[in-house]
Amino acid sequence: LLNLLPPTLHTRKVRKSIDSWIIRWPSICAILLEMDYLAHSQFPEASNHLGEPFVKRLRYIQQKFSDS
């Protein structure tokens, strides 16, 4: 089964996917956090760090693709 996997992930489709997640993920996190606060009758706190670990990982993968 492992022999059927593609040898590399350096496709244009993968790079586009990473770019779209870098843009969308912080917004998704902000919306989910606000929904969670509203469900618990609380006021959401302002944060600029939503989704940051995931975005950092995507940027690392993106850089890895661009180096090769």
TrEMBL record:
UniProt superkingdom: Eukaryota
Protein name: Uncharacterized protein
